[in-house]
Amino acid sequence: MTLGLAAASAMMVACNQNGGSTAASSNTEIAAGKPDIVYVNSDSLLANYEYFKDVRERLQTKAEQKEKDLRAQAESFQKEVERFQQNAPSMSQRQAESTQQRLMQKQQQLQALQQSSGNELMSEESEEMKKIYDRVEEYLKQLSGEEGYKMVLTYQRGNSAILYGDSTLDITESVVTALNKAYDSEKAEADTAKKEETADKKEEKKK
């Protein structure tokens, strides 16, 4: 279970506002010297957004650990089955049936655990992608208000309604820079709070 660029890009939807006719927008752009419509390359944004990269790494690590745990349990179960097969000839019919029933129940539990584990990861990935979308949308709304953008489109190579866009309308780099700056500040504040909490706990222990 990995957090891929394709899945993430699907959630990168533009922050749209009413913009009037195409002709009117063009005239406004010329008069103001600023474009009404700009676009963001979602592939590039996600590939360079530190928050997304941290989330992807965390989810991949969690998925790998879950897979490792499930594999260990499956291997342990397989050994139990092999022991039963070896010992079955010397067991009474009642012992054999009881052991077989227990193994069947354990197999069902393992299958249910695999299913619930996969669903849990998918749910967490969906929640994290919503957080990323909300962060980007919130910033684009703020940026649109400051710059006067009427529409911010999203562009993804090979899967986009935009066949061509002038590079001067591409604001991806500035958006990534601003998002990463905000995320760095959040991490710094979180680290400071964590250090203060640790220091407080040490002081409490001394008392």
From TrEMBL:
Entries under SUPFAM superfamilies matching the protein: OmpH-like
GO cellular component: cytosol
Low complexity bias (residue ranges): 100-121
InterPro entries with a match to the protein in the record: Chaperone_Skp, Skp_dom_sf
Domain of life: Bacteria
Biased composition (Polar residues): 84-99
Pfam hit, one: OmpH
GO molecular function terms listed in the Swiss-Prot or TrEMBL record: unfolded protein binding
GO biological process: protein stabilization
Alphabetic keyword roster: Signal
Region of interest (Disordered), residue spans: 83-123, 183-207
Family: Belongs to the Skp family.
The protein, known as: OmpH family outer membrane protein
Organism listed in the record: Pontibacter mangrovi
